[in-house]
Design a protein that fits this description.
Protein name: Elongation factor Ts
Number of helices: 7
Strand order of the largest sheet: 1-2-5
CATH architecture of the largest domain: 2-Layer Sandwich
Organism: candidate division WWE3 bacterium
CATH topology of the largest domain: Tetrahydropterin Synthase, Chain A
Number of strands: 5
Function: Associates with the EF-Tu.GDP complex and induces the exchange of GDP to GTP. It remains bound to the aminoacyl-tRNA.EF-Tu.GTP complex up to the GTP hydrolysis stage on the ribosome.
CATH superfamily of the largest domain: Elongation factor Ts, dimerisation domain
Largest sheet: 3 strands, antiparallel
Family: Belongs to the EF-Ts family.
Strand content: 15-25%
Pfam families: EF_TS
Distance between the termini: 76 Å
Length: about 160
């Protein structure tokens, strides 16, 4: 049987529910790191099952990097307004926006395949899948735009200096 303190710690670190944390600890014979992997794998399985569900809600998230020279606008979608209003969904949007600001991916597909800047053992797609597993809804990164001070946009020409 799993120790209550281990269950609490696992829940805090993964966001898993009480029963999921307990089950993962039992499957891993009390090994916290193995239990995290069990929860992570369960989240990926849930994400795959939900991947064909339609996403019509969500929001546009704006992020300005601390130096005020890089900004990101990002559209993150989910199935319901209820999930779009959760802290977990907002946190995911912020993390993805920070990734875009720092790594400057060329496309959504490239972004999804990038190693997550806070944990190189997972990709951005893995990060999204873990939140899908936690929230129980399909989540999709639709698009993003990155702005950098002084950088020209596609098709834009520099104005001549006077």
């Amino acid at each position: 049987m799993a120790d209550i303190n281990q269950i609490k710690q696992l829940r805090e670190e993964t966001g898993a529910g009480v029963m999921a944390a307990r089950k993962a600890l039992e499957e891993s014979n009390g090994d916290l790191e193995k239990a995290k992997q069990v929860i992570y794998q369960a989240g990926l399985a849930k994400a795959e099952k939900k991947s064909d569900r339609e996403v019509k809600s969500g929001f546009i998230y704006s992020y300005i990097h601390g130096n005020n020279k890089v900004g990101v606008l990002l559209e993150l979608n989910c199935e319901t307004d209820f999930v779009a209003k959760t802290d977990d969904f907002s946190h995911l949007a912020k993390e993805i926006s920070m990734q875009v600001a720092s790594m400057n991916p060329e496309s959504t597909e490239a972004l999804l395949g990038q190693d997550y800047i806070r944990d190189s053992s997972q990709t951005i797609k893995d990060l999204i899948d873990s939140v899908i597993g936690k929230l129980g809804e399909n989540i999709s990164l639709r698009r993003f735009t990155r702005y950098e001070l002084g950088e020209l946009m596609d098709g834009e020409e520099a104005e001549p200096a006077e």
